[in-house]
């Protein structure tokens, strides 16, 4: 089928979904389940799994119609689900039946997902993680502690990276699982951030059991499966809105328009520069999306992640500069974030400024992004890796 025919089919299906399930009237899970059934959740996924088997680039066409009719941005409702779990499940789950059983409630947002990667001693050095997975018949027994786990308190399922073999070099002894966050032995404790909200958590895992059927990829191949998750995470974090002037910059433009009393020529000039940088980032993201019409994102996702994170911080810094002393007035110091379906997580602009500080840490720090870009795109000499080739259990740990 030609791509023009594919585009027409995607557009027709999107119009049909909003005609039959008006997103302004029906409950969000029902509307998003209808999008899944029509193959519009991820148009490049196979039919029956929330897709139509067409070019990834056509997702923008579906989203334009769906969101234009008042539909929510699904990524903002189930970020780890849409951005990371879905592509990982699609590529590595053991059967189509399992894939569908996870993907439909993920897409409808009935099941929120979280990412159980980071540990107190393993963030940038993720492959050094210590949570253990020991095989016991048809099950695995998991013990360890994860940290900074966004949305674990609301999650039904977690993407878990654990060490199944301590005797081999660190990247080789990892296996990847889907953990039932309601299973016995899984305890979630909230961590309060400087915004006042508890968006992420510590997760303690004690003798929790996972059926082998819930393993993603081969035993010992967890690092490669994790790459599917991380590349998609960076791409999702770095993707700006596909509409001109959308995304974070729209907050700055709206603030400028609402406060003529605070406008100065210098702030106007800085806003114009930020708008230009946002537009350059949007076009770069579009170009990378167009290039990756099939398969997953490559290291190019790290460009969007790096640039987007720093740009977000500069935009909210500008907002604080415009507000002057008002920037210190922040009333949103509650822990209610993300508790309600469809709630706006972002709060007032002062909160967004504080939250933007995390952008250069979450999903891989800016230093790590620069290392990836230096090594994989520019071909520069690699980072120092003193533990390369050593069995994980012999690597000194603090
Ligand atoms: C808001 C937020 C949400 C998060 N959500 C999740 C989540 O849902 N799931 C999850 O698993 N994790 C999550 N994280 C964790 C995040 O992935 C880690 O914080 C991040 O990878 C950095 O790890 P670290 O905090 O251990 O810092 P470290 O790795 O200890 O880094 C400390 C400093 O050293 C620098 N550094 C480290 N190694 C190098 C190097 N090789 N070269 C140059 N500089 C280096 C870093 O850039 C940083 O400045 C979240 C973090 C934040 C802030």
* Main sheet: strands, sense, barrel: 4 strands, mixed
As an assembly, this protein is single chain
Q: Percent of residues in beta strands?
A: 5-15%
- The proportion of residues forming helix, as a percent range, comes to 40-55%
Strand order of the largest sheet: 1-4-5-8
Unreliable stretches, pLDDT < 50, 5 or more residues? 337-344
Please trace the helix and strand order, writing H or E for each element: HHHHHHEEEEEEEEHHHHHH
The radius of gyration computed from the alpha-carbon positions, rounded to a whole number of angstroms, is 22 Å
Task: Give the mean pLDDT.
Answer: 91
Distance N terminus to C terminus? 57 Å
Tally of helical segments: 12
Going by helix content, strand content and strand pairing, the class is alpha+beta
Shape designation: globular
Q: Are any ligands bound, and if so which?
A: flavin-adenine dinucleotide
How many E-type strands?
8
Tell me the layout of helices and strands:
Elements lengths: L2 H18 L7 H10 L21 H10 L5 H4 L1 H14 L3 H13 L3 E5 L15 E5 L2 E9 L7 E9 L10 E7 L5 E6 L8 E12 L3 E2 L5 H17 L9 H11 L6 H27 L9 H23 L25 H8 L9 H12 L21
Parallel strand pairs: 1-4
Antiparallel strand pairs: 2-3, 3-7, 4-5, 5-8, 6-7
Helix pairs in contact: 1-3, 2-6, 5-6, 5-7, 7-10, 8-9, 8-10, 9-10, 10-11, 10-12
Bound molecules: flavin-adenine dinucleotide.
Written description of the protein model:
Residues 220-378 form the Acyl-CoA dehydrogenase/oxidase C-terminal domain. Belongs to the acyl-CoA dehydrogenase family. InterPro entries: Acyl-CoA_Oxase/DH_mid-dom, Acyl-CoA_Oxase/DH_mid-dom_sf, AcylCo_DH-like_C, AcylCo_DH/oxidase_C, AcylCoA_DH/ox_N, AcylCoA_DH/ox_N_sf, AcylCoA_DH/oxidase_NM_dom_sf, Mycobact_Acyl-CoA_DH. Its cofactor is FAD. Keywords: FAD, Flavoprotein, Oxidoreductase. The structure is a single chain. The chain is an alpha+beta fold. It has helices at residues 3-20, 28-37, 59-68, 74-77, 79-92, 96-108, 222-238, 248-258, 265-291, 301-323, 349-356, 366-377; strands at 112-116, 132-136, 139-147, 155-163, 174-180, 186-191, 200-211, 215-216. It has a four-stranded mixed β-sheet. Helix 5 (79-92) packs antiparallel against helix 7 (222-238), helix 7 runs parallel beside helix 10 and helix 10 (301-323) packs across helix 11 (349-356). The structure holds flavin-adenine dinucleotide (FAD). Flavin-adenine dinucleotide binds next to strand 1 and helix 12.
